[in-house]
Amino acid sequence: MGATGVTTSNVCTTQGVSCINGLVDTINLEAYASGSRSLPDHTKSPFTTYSYGEMTIANIQCIGCKTLSGILPAAWGSMTSLLTIQFYECALTGSLPSEWSGLTRLSSLLLQSNQLTGTLPTSWQSMTQLITLRIHSNQLTGPLPEGWSKLTVLGTLSLNSNQLSGTLPSSWRLMTGMAFLYLFANKLEGTLPSEWSSMTILNELSLNDNQLSGTLPSSWKSMTNMVFLYLFANKFEGTLPSEWSSMTRIADLRLNDNKLTGTLPSTWSSFTSLGTTYLRNNALSGTLPDSWKSMKKLGLLSLEGNQFTGEIPSSWNSMVALGSFTAQGNQLTGGLPSSFSSMTALTSVDLSSNQLDQALPSALPPNIQSVYLHNNRITGYIPQSYTTANYPSVTTIFLHGNPDLKGCVPPSWKDSNNALYSSYTLLRSTNPAVACDGCATYGTLGCASCVAGSKVNQTTLQCVEKGCTVTSCTKCVFDKEDQCETCGETYKVDSSKKCTPKVCSVPNCATCVYNTEDQCGTCDATYKVDSSKKCTPKVCSVPNCATCVYNTEDQCGTCDATYKVDSSKKCTPKVCSVPNCATCVYNTEDQCETCGTNQKPDGKGGCTPMQCSVEGCNKCVDDTEDKCETCGTNMKSDGKGGCTPMDCSVAHCAKCVVNTEDQCKTCGKTYKLDDKQQCIPKVCSVLNCATCVYDMEDQCDVCSTNQKSDGNGGCTPMVCSVANCTKCVVDTEDQCASCGTNMKPDGDGGCTPMQCSVEGCSKCVDDTEDECAECGGNFVSKNGGCEATKGGGGLPLGAIIGIAIGAVTLLILLLLLLLFFCCRKRKTTYEQVDHLTGNKTETQRRKSTGKVDVSEETEVTVMDAFHPGDTRRSVNPLNSPPQNDIPQTVVARRRSRRTRSIRNTGSDIADVDLEFMFDDENEIVEV
């Protein structure tokens, strides 16, 4: 490869390099093909420094360089001067460089017969000047690029013998310059594009050996320049398009090994240039068209493996160029037309495995080499003219498997050195008569005379052994048909050489031994054959037999009394066969006289079981039906052979033990079984339980005082939860009955500390608020109270007077403030709600103290005029009626604005003092 400006003479004179005007034009590497060579790696130095776009090289080639390996350089794609690249029949590997799309002037690219892999580059669609592209016989894969439809001047494209897949692009219809397209031996599928009809200059199209399917497009009739069309070994279906008759230039048409159906189009008679036609191994049917006689150039016609019927047109003898005609494996009838004897070009005919049923033609084509007519139904005679002397080129005439052939095979066939000897051996294996081994002289159709002992069959003209005409004779005297030498069985030769029957002469003999006259084989009735083959009387030899079977000695017909004839015709003792019978009637086996235990006669000679008729009885006394031995469940004997029901006598028992009257199984409610199967009352066993759940001993219903349910059917003590309480109210845990030291009830069931109210007292007596135990400074104890001290130990008199005046002033201010609040109007409403009836009663009381009856659930509501909606309630829910007829009342004293809840404590009474002060308008102004 030279760059622009390289003009040194030593480059242009290098072997394999051609120059024009001092510049490299062609590089031919064939001179360096010996030994292992490899294309250099153009991705390495110094090749990476080349300016490929400035090179003038037009041609690079190495044809048949079988040892040249390496990959195609992608860098060559910049050599826009290239016109041809030829590297076929080499050992190149790798893929087709997509970079070669820059070779827009390339007209010929030949890369066939290498080891190239990968797919066809879509980018090559830019090689619009490409005329010839051959990449067949590689290992290419992938689809046919749709974009290659732009290669409109491409005339030859060979991609066959690769592993290409996918469908035939309909866009390739634009490749109108295509003349030669080879895509066979790939993995292409799909249908034939009808659009390809625009490829009107297409001359050769090879799509065979793929997986194409569908029908043959009638639109391809426009391909009038088609000469070679190969579509065989695919999966095409449908009929042969009659429209293709316009392809008048077709010379080679191969549609074999598909699934085509229908008939042969008579219009194809226009194929006057057709030289080769393969239609074998389809499902074509119908008759062979007479019109095809116009195919004067047809040299090979292959129709085998179809379903053609009818006769072979005799007019086809006008196919003067026909050299090979094969139609085996069809359903053709008739025969090989005699007119074919004029076809001088015909060398091979195969019509085997049809239904040909006519005679063989008297003459064959003069230059015939092989004729296959075996496995048909050919009749008539084998022409004696079928010899190598008359047909010097013939090597095969297969006629075997035609059972109705007559005449004789030409004698020359029997010569092991003759070309037709193998045809003779096959024919003799299926039609041995045509060998005519006993023929002495031959005629035009078969044997004229036979050797001694044989004669000519005038129908088949074959030699057959002379037949014996003597009745019952198996072999006549040699070459005599009316004199017997050996008679058939049961016959003997008499003095006239005829056969007469043999006659049995043994007395009382029905039949003599086969083919004898003095040895009895079967005697008359009541006689038997003795050791000398004579007949003697038979004597009955069976023990205890009264009479033997007629004409037997060892088979008894009637036995003596108390005996019977068994299956072997012997006498055996009779045995009583009646079930449950103790003794049968004399000389019988099926008539009982005395039945067994608990059985009775059934009136028909048999025995039937006795049925116990006692009601409630499980088993009667043996041999009785009305006396019970064992009574049934819960039944007892009545002492008279009967049964009476048992009565359960256990008190409070719901059901006694089976078959007992004093053993209880299930007691009634609130009772249980003891260890003696008696019923005793159930006792509540739950500790601290007042009452158990009904009919239970371990599930408490009501616990005792100060006990509560534990949730599992038991009782657990109540625990007082009130702080500083020493004892709660009976049956409560949150209502204190007795508070601890220095504590007092708080009015809500709780305890609150006591407050010492004695003036000047620093500590009250325990559990009191108004008895001082210890006075403070300047105070002394007096009558449970504290009194201020006088004298030097106290305050000065002036101070005391000042304090007194201040106290009086403060008291006056407090009285004025109290008067102010007392003059403001306040309204309190007392509302009592009966939750049993839903009625509400609103009352007002004037300066009164009362007790609210809460024998029914009661709500007390006080609404403060200063705080609308402010509700205080005292609620007493009742769960049980009053006890000991003590009124259930509560009394609550309103000490603050907080709601107070007073729990009813059963028989105790809680007092609530409600004091109301009304104004002149009868409205509450103070509580």
TrEMBL record:
The chain crosses the membrane at residues 797-822. Keywords: Leucine-rich repeat, Membrane, Repeat, Transmembrane, Transmembrane helix. It comes from the Eukaryota. Residues 874-887 have a biased composition (Polar residues). Residues 868-888 are annotated as: Disordered. PANTHER family: LRR RECEPTOR-LIKE SERINE_THREONINE-PROTEIN KINASE FLS2 (PTHR48054:SF82), RECEPTOR KINASE-LIKE PROTEIN XA21 (PTHR48054). This is Leucine rich repeat.
